[in-house]
Amino acid sequence: MAATSFKTLDSLDAAGKKVLLRADLNVPVRNRQITDATRIMRLLPTIQELAQKGAKVIVVSHFDRPKGRPVPEMSLGPIADALGDALGRPVTFVDDCIGPKAQQAVAAMQDGDVVVLENTRFYPGEEQNDPELAKAFAALADYYVNDAFSAAHRAHASTEGVARLLPSFAGRLMETELNALNIALENPARPVGAIVGGAKISTKLDLIGNLLEKVDMLIIGGAMANTFLAAQGVNVGRSLQEADMHDTARTIMTKAKDKGCEIVLPVDAVTATDFQANVPTRTVPVSAIPADAMMLDVGPETIMLINQKIATLKTLVWNGPLGAFEITPFDAATNAVAQEVARLTDAGALKSIAGGGDTVSALRHAGVEKHISYISSAGGAFLEWMEGKTLPGIMALESIFERAMPI
Ligand code: 3PG
Ligand code: MG
């Protein structure tokens, strides 16, 4: 899907208008503290632009998974405060997202004001995409702006239903995400490659299947690589792997060959008998993994191989760490490859696009976050997009566009 098929804020005449802005304020929180404010920060340009144009900005979002009833700990109140701090201006919080309270708050807004409404998932109709709830959202505003790419894989009342009822636009973050994804896989500079890591093939089958069609090179790491190696008869000892996926792994290898997609697998491994910080490790060729050991990271030969391969690419999409990066020293390969990706990106030789929860933490851990061309704000939505799935939140924006086109 090309980003150009959506209306953006460029064509929204927002002055004096009520704009319902679907944000993703589902930020990670621990002990009542926001541990990563990225999603709040990335939302600011859209809010600032709308407010500056004189719109009344009505922000709606889900937060966590309250399952259709009010859960006080999942109130958006504290997040609204954090948003106000980030904006450097007061933001009014309303403890309902529809009905008289929300309507009164909206009626009291001045042009340029920002309100945040309570968690949309406090209503069961949100996740059921209930048309009545969508209508209640639509009744609050003149226009709908969706800036929640990271929730676009959900067909919910505030992400999908309401987009069918109001003239709808992509916000700046949504626009940026769609442009980046377009550069990554739809119209990439070639050769284009992907690094796919993580634990299980079974959860990433669709993703690999779609990538084979689109990329010239697939670099496989993480525990998933063990399954591919084992499927080729390599003895991987006690490494995490999926014995029932060997046929699938072999089919993927054959299909890749047919498509002219090169598959890069680890050639050496950092192994240990326990998955613990700073345990004794042995680095061995993959053909010599001890029977009582597990492969917890790819080894230095593999790092060299991957870095050589990456140097031949113009575009790289990255999802999933190469090793068990949360525990030292099994972060070594992910760090080393991340640094090489950062170096090539800074040198202008590579466009690098990364996404998915673990991947972003891994790149942050490697200290290269600011040296990647684009890091998606999305987890599940990024994966579904890589799987080639249609994201309902985006489809709904597109269909409004088509209906709005002159016949
Ligand atoms: C996310 O964090 O991935 C999005 O906000 C969607 O949240 P969900 O997985 O609870 O639907
Ligand atoms: Mg999620």
TrEMBL record:
It catalyses: (2R)-3-phosphoglycerate + ATP = (2R)-3-phospho-glyceroyl phosphate + ADP. GO terms for molecular function: kinase activity. The keyword ATP-binding applies. Monomer. Its main location: cytoplasm. Gene3D superfamilies: Phosphoglycerate kinase, N-terminal domain. It is an enzyme of class 2 (transferase). ATP binds at residues 204, 326, 356-359. Pathway: Carbohydrate degradation; glycolysis; pyruvate from D-glyceraldehyde 3-phosphate: step 2/5. HAMAP family: Phosphoglyc_kinase (MF_00145). Its EC number is 2.7.2.3. It is found in: Cytoplasm. This is Phosphoglycerate kinase. The lineage of its organism: Bacteria, Pseudomonadati, Pseudomonadota, Alphaproteobacteria, Acetobacterales. Transmembrane segments: none annotated. The gene is pgk. Keywords: ATP-binding, Cytoplasm, Glycolysis, Kinase, Nucleotide-binding, Transferase.
